[in-house]
Design a protein that fits this description.
Strand content: 15-25%
Distance between the termini: 23 Å
Pfam families: Hydrolase_4 (PF12146)
Order of helices and strands: EEEHEHEHEHHHHEHEH
Shape: globular
Structural class: alpha/beta
CATH superfamily: Alpha/Beta hydrolase fold, catalytic domain
Protein name: Alpha/beta hydrolase
GO molecular function, one term: hydrolase activity
Strand order of the largest sheet: 1-2-4-3-5-6-7-8
Number of helices: 9
CATH class: Alpha Beta
Largest sheet: 8 strands, mixed
Number of domains: 1
Number of strands: 8
CATH topology: Rossmann fold
Keywords: Hydrolase
Radius of gyration: 18 Å
Helix content: 25-40%
CATH architecture: 3-Layer(aba) Sandwich
Length: 314
């Protein structure tokens, strides 16, 4: 058995990278790593805005070593799933409903083709879309884990005014143009690395992959993406179906997160009928699963215990 660190900068030899055609024909890049021998179940992991699955190979190896099949799909418009704007470095989408439509179709095929129990894990935007998919009936996992979920956005002018401004700006020019330059978050002097993780080595892993596969690199979001993100997170927070969403859900929240709103995640957790919350303080930035070992190992341990209780091997 290889150390999970073996895979930080290498695709596992027994993993597969392929493309999957969405119902409208759009090609999305898919990663699949079947368990060695009989699987104890299957995990579908969905990353955040601008993420690529290569960033999480070390974490995938942890689950794979525990006997899980591990699958991940690049969201439409990022990673290896093509671009939706003329500028390949701008993350654009016309409507978050497109993400959900892709996910609904993929989930149905993946669930039918892989052994259960089936688990859905989402980070950041992936956490938002995972919860929205469950609320809308697009996915029915045995258990779900939302890591630093994007259930509210940080905005220097507040979420309500930020949404109104983003909608206005999309009407005043090209809605696919970049909402800002450079960093992950506007109006901040904090470095991108500090916003994401305290672990310099893991941050450098991402930069290595960007140099190795520059076509996967994505920069800032478009104004339309930003407008739709405000809209979708607000609508999900207000959705009465949260109270009847039956999937046992673990939310891992970084209280010092400066990219998404930890307060919004904690508020949503109180409305879910079967939710558990794990919180980190100043020791964790946004990318909990790519943090320093003290944080990352605690988070993975909690996920393992949660899945043992709610998605036991058949």
């Amino acid at each position: 058995m290889n150390s999970p660190q073996t895979y930080r900068r290498a695709i596992p030899a027994d993993a597969h990278i392929d493309t999957w055609a969405a119902p409208d024909g759009w090609k999305l890049r898919c990663f699949d790593w079947p368990a060695a021998g009989q699987a104890r179940g299957s995990i579908l992991f969905q990353g955040g805005r601008g993420d690529i699955f290569e960033k999480y190979l070390e974490t995938f190896a942890h689950w794979h070593d525990a006997g899980w099949n591990v699958t991940s799909l690049d969201w439409r418009g990022q990673g290896g799933s093509g671009r939706l704007s003329a500028n390949p470095h701008v993350g654009h989408v016309e409507d978050f409903a497109h993400y959900i439509a892709d996910f609904r179709a993929f989930w149905a095929l993946w669930q039918a083709a892989t052994p259960g129990p089936h688990v859905l894990i989402g980070h950041s935007m992936g956490g938002h879309l995972a919860l929205r998919a469950m609320v809308e009936g697009a996915a029915t996992p045995a258990a779900a884990v939302l890591v630093a979920p994007m259930l509210g956005l940080h905005s220097p002018i507040g979420a309500a005014l930020g949404e109104r401004m983003a909608k206005l700006v999309t009407r005043l020019g090209n809605p696919a143009r970049s909402a800002w330059k450079g960093n992950e978050r506007p109006a901040t002097t904090t470095t991108r690395e500090a916003l994401l993780t305290h672990d310099h080595g893991r941050y450098e892993d991402e930069i290595w992959w960007q140099r190795e596969r520059p076509e996967l690199l994505l920069g800032p979001p478009s104004w339309k993406w930003l407008s739709r993100a405000f809209e979708s997170t607000r609508a999900l927070r207000d959705d009465p179906r949260l109270a009847t969403m039956p999937v046992p859900t673990l939310l891992i929240v970084a209280e010092a997160d400066k990219l998404v709103s930890p307060a919004a995640a904690l508020q949503v957790a109180t409305r879910l009928p079967d939710a558990r919350v794990m919180q980190f303080g100043a020791e964790s930035a946004h990318e909990v699963l790519r943090e320093a070992d003290g944080v990352r190992d605690r988070a993975l341990g909690e996920i393992d215990r949660f899945l043992a209780a709610h998605a036991p091997a058949g």
